[in-house]
Structures are given as structure tokens and as C-alpha cells.
What does this fold into?
Amino acid sequence: MRRLTIWPVTGLPEVRAGDDLASMIVGALATDPLLDHDVVVVAQKVVSKSEGRVVALSTVTPSERAIRMGEEAGKDPRALEVVLRETRSIVRWERGVLIAETHHGFVCANAGVDRSNAGAPDSVVLLPVDPDASAARLRDALRERTGRDVAVLVTDTFGRAWREGHVNVAIGMAGMPALLRYVGQYDPEGYELRVTEIALADEIAGAAEIVMGKLDRCPVAIVRGLGMPSSEHTAQEYVRPKEKDLFR
Amino acid sequence: MRRLTIWPVTGLPEVRAGDDLASMIVGALATDPLLDHDVVVVAQKVVSKSEGRVVALSTVTPSERAIRMGEEAGKDPRALEVVLRETRSIVRWERGVLIAETHHGFVCANAGVDRSNAGAPDSVVLLPVDPDASAARLRDALRERTGRDVAVLVTDTFGRAWREGHVNVAIGMAGMPALLRYVGQYDPEGYELRVTEIALADEIAGAAEIVMGKLDRCPVAIVRGLGMPSSEHTAQEYVRPKEKDLFR
It folds into this structure.
């Protein structure tokens, strides 16, 4: 019987550019070491910080477009300029809300640029340049330090169409499947299953968020018991091409 | 430190109309009884079956609209007729995919009507008429039989805009919050938190799905360790009114 256990990794120090996240996580886990096939879920913000993806707004010169949008919405044009630089295309700009497709292909508010918990005044944190690569590097570093073959998810909390509330999702991953495919499988009456792909890594990201919280500076959680052999996938498998998307 | 444990309830018999789900769950849990504040996550399908929300297609006379749509998409007009009856408004009808707003306000494929695992040939299963009431009834029945104050989620797997893959979400609930609100809370630098509402029950529904699976007829899971006092909420809190929704 499959039994999942999920707990937060507490006691991590504040993360700064250049920090070795793997060592910090291994250190914080001292009394409860990683096992093979654990999933290490890490909030995007600490990955971004360790990679120096923090921008001081005083260094940003807003474009005319950002100035115009800032006037429209009563928002800081320098922050909007950073958002526009992270944006591949604007999906919605209405009522002061900017829903953007990022250069990675994710659709989210402000292209993932966020001002809270930046660790520095008047600064914003961007998503990692390549969150899958970030996850793969962290996975390799954890294996080097512990000898364990774990999966890693880099996550962020995204809003949704139609439903209130944000959920944590995987924006980068290494070592486990993004999607569980039921294509071509049949129920006992012989009908092909309607739900053909379960977004497993997103569901794990959400499960980890429950113990991570937002305020308590707990950006890492461990999920144990998935019992899944390691496999190579990326969060790009979640990106629905625009031409297949009924809602863009 | 918060530690969540999640496991499937195995050995439940096939559920039929009129079955007492609470007794079936309590029976299946015999060696691992419920505790106060456990969350009992139940797949919509068994709730619907116990409530008799199964329709034999042989009893359905399709409307002209359903016949026309069936011809357009090469689909069974009787099944489309049932979907249309469960639909408050059609959000998209393209390429044979029907995304509908249900009478409850949920936006999902085929208004939640599903042919797989119906338990009878040529039949479809509908969502419960009032999934919050279903959850509340099950919660009361579980309390009566065990003396425990648990929360109950009734869940279904929904597709999403922009992202591939389905996730399990709460369509009915009792005894716990739908949303965790961070409105008016500040990070250590004094910035108000961007993510102001976490869809907690949806994240728990997704976490439970990981152990429930689709094929193994395991429609119930227990989530323990949330450590949250009981409170009265409904899954209607997830319904974003159309006039607030940028994607309808």
C-alpha cells in the first residue's frame, strides 16, 4: 500500500546569490537524511535567489510602454519593465492584472516576477532562466553529497482560470514524470479512461505547499513514498502549445 | 513541525445506489481508524453512484441540439444530451471538446459527465447535485459512526487552461477551509504578499489523488496531520464569478 509522507525542511538560512542550496538542504536534513526516490520540492524563490535572479528596481529604466502601463494601472513602471522583459507574450492586461506567457511558456501573473520575500529592499525576484536545468543541477548536487537518487521539483504558486485561489505547481523538474498517462487503458466495463494524463508533479508540488506555507520561510519540503523509479522529464511537458489551447 | 501522511483506503466494495458510504469507509479502515482532523478525500464517482447519479443512455432521448452536436463531433448524441442537461453555459465547444460551466459553477470538460467506471454498461455518471451537501452528509455520518470530527472532500479530476494534464480538485467539502488567506500579511521586508489565497482543499485533493490512482478502484484516501481545527466552508468558494473571470 502506497503511503506518502510530506514534511517541511526547517532551519534553512536566508538564501543569497551564489549559495550552495544542496549543501544547505543536506545540512538542514541532518537528522532525517534523504532516501532514494524522495522528492525534494523547492520554492522557486530560493532557487532564483541562489542564482542571482534578483533585480533592484533602482537599476531599471522603464520603457515608454512600461511607463504607459504603469500610469494605466497605478503601478511602479520599473517593476512593469522587469515583467515585460520576462514576457514572451501578454495573455491578458485588464483591470491592472497582467497575465503573461513567460519565455519558458508558463502562463502566470506578472510573468512570475514577484516583489515579496526578495530579501532586499525595492527589489524583485524573477523566475530562474531555466528551471528544469536548476532542478537537474540541484538533483546532481544532492546525489553527489548524499549518494541518493532523488527527484527535484522547482515550484511556484500560480493562479488559475475559473477557480479562485492559487496552487503550487512545478516549473522545473528532474528525476520523475510530469504526467502519468492513462492513454489506451480501460476500465472494467471496457471504456477508455477519460482522464488520460494526471499532472503528477503538479499534484506533488501542491501537496508540498501545504507544509511549506508562505510566511514561515520554509521553502523546501520532502515527499517520501511515491515509490517511483527515477526517469527523465521536464516541466516543459506541462506547456500547452498556444495552438492547442482553447483559452489563449 | 507539520508532517502530512496520506494513504489510500483499500478494499472498498463496488459502490451502488443507496449504499452507505460512511459505513463502507469505516469498515475498510478497521485496523487504522480515523482521528479528529483527518481529511477524508472521496472521489466524486463513488459519491455520485451512492446517490444514484448514473444514467443509462438507453433511457435518454437526445434533443435536436444534442443530435446536431453529435454529428459535428462524431459523438453519441445521448451522452451529449446528458451533458447539456448538466450545463449552465457552454464555455467552449471546439474540435469536439466541450468545456462547460456546470449548474454548480464549475468549469470542466463535459460538465463532469463521465462514461468510465460507471459500473454499468452504456451508462454515464453525473456529478452530485450538491457536492457540498454530499460532503457534509458524509462528514456527519462518519462522526456518528466513529465519534471523530473529520473534514471531507468530494473530488474530481479537471483539466486546466494553459497547462497539460489533469489535477484532482475539491468540488464539495465540509469541515475545513477552501482557501488560506494571506491578505494583509507582510513579508520580512514589509511587502504585502502577492499570493493572497492558497487553494488548500484543492492542494489536498491533488495530494490524495497521488495515492488513489485511476485504475485500481481506490476512490478514498486519508490525509492526516494538517492540524487544522474544523471550520465551515464550501467548495463554492472556488467558483469565480464570470464577471471577475478574465478567461470566459
User: Anything to note?
Assistant: Chain A has a mean pLDDT of 92. Chain A touches chain B through 72 residues (CB under 8 Å). Chain A is about 25% helix and 25% strand. The longest helix of chain A spans residues 131-146.
